[in-house]
Design brief:
This protein has 213 residues and is an all-alpha fold. The protein folds into 2 domains: 1-36, no CATH class; 38-207, Up-down Bundle (Fumarate Reductase Cytochrome B subunit). 60% of the residues lie in helices and 3% in strands. A two-stranded antiparallel sheet has the order 1-2. Strand 1 (148-150) and strand 2 form a beta hairpin. Helix 4 runs antiparallel to helix 5 (165-200). The longest helix is centred in the last third of the chain and has 36 residues, at 165-200. Bound molecules: protoporphyrin IX containing FE (2 copies).
């Protein structure tokens, strides 16, 4: 399918001409494997579902801080179940990525942009495993091996870690540091997505959003 997503045009300028690209192929120089290529439907669903759950977990952790203990316990219960769900969905997503290879990065990206994109994506996958695992470690150490209740539906086993103070401190530190790194990475990732959408207009966003053209 021929699309004009990666052609650098002023807003609205060559859009009409590009929609008739099959009549005048010279209007768009991109190839079919460039920005016309999208992530698979499954990868798109997993991306946005996990992103939503991650944002929810940050909001939950922050808002629970100032609440009375009983309310904090309820929110943290959801935080933990949500976090384990993120861990499980990330494993599915990594498996999915092996089966359905993602589209190649846009050929129009500068070398530093492509390197940064690859590094950001790899670090994201690492953190999507490390943040919930550290949280699970913290829960396991603090709760002396008590399982995590998955929204009251079933129990997810705790990690086999000690419950002494240094272990609790270690996992607490790990959870906080990895969550902060994830937050910084989300900031960078969203800024990059907005830059591609509104400054470069190269169709990067459409690769991950099925309703964008
Ligand atoms: C991607 C998933 C997760 C994210 C983004 C996340 C994020 C956070 C953040 C930002 C905090 C506040 C950090 C602080 O200032 O101490 C926090 C606290 C906490 N998280 Fe998570 N978390 C996730 C998964 C989990 C999981 C899976 C568990 C346990 C099963 C968990 C257990 C906890 C606990 C027990 C605290 C409270 C620490 C305290 O009271 O100081 N988290 N989390
Ligand atoms: C908040 C948590 C988020 C996480 C953890 C996350 C993670 C990721 C990862 C790992 C990839 C690479 C996919 C792969 O190649 O397998 C990716 C791609 C992408 N993300 Fe996110 N993302 C998040 C939020 C967002 C948001 C809010 C936006 C838009 C504002 C966004 C826009 C995109 C786009 C456009 C791509 C495709 C990049 C490309 O084609 O090269 N993401 N994201």
């Amino acid at each position: 399918m021929l699309s004009c997503l990666s052609s650098r045009r002023a807003p609205g300028q060559a859009k009409a001409a590009c929609s008739r690209a099959w009549l005048a192929p010279t209007c768009c120089s991109m190839s079919t494997s460039d920005s016309a290529a999208r992530y698979s439907r499954g990868a798109i669903i997993l991306h946005w579902l996990i992103a939503l759950l991650i944002v929810g977990n940050f909001i939950g952790a922050w808002t629970s801080e100032d609440l009375p203990r009983d309310q904090k316990m309820i929110i943290m219960g959801y935080h933990k179940a949500n976090g384990v769900l993120i861990l499980l969905l990330t494993l599915v997503r990594i498996g999915w990525r092996f089966v359905y290879r993602p589209p190649a990065l846009l050929a129009t990206l500068k070398t530093w942009e492509a390197t940064l994109a690859r590094a950001t994506h790899a670090l994201f996958y690492l953190l999507m495993l490390a943040v919930p695992l550290a949280g699970l470690g913290l829960h396991s150490a603090f709760g002396k091996g008590k399982p995590v209740s998955m929204f009251g539906l079933f129990d997810f086993p705790a990690l086999p870690v000690g419950s002494d103070k240094p272990t609790i401190g270690l996992y607490h530190e790990l959870h906080e540091v990895t969550a902060t790194a994830m937050l910084l990475l989300i900031g960078l990732h969203v800024a990059a997505a907005l830059k591609h959408q509104f400054l470069d207009r190269d169709g990067t966003m459409a690769r991950m959003l099925p309703f964008l053209r």
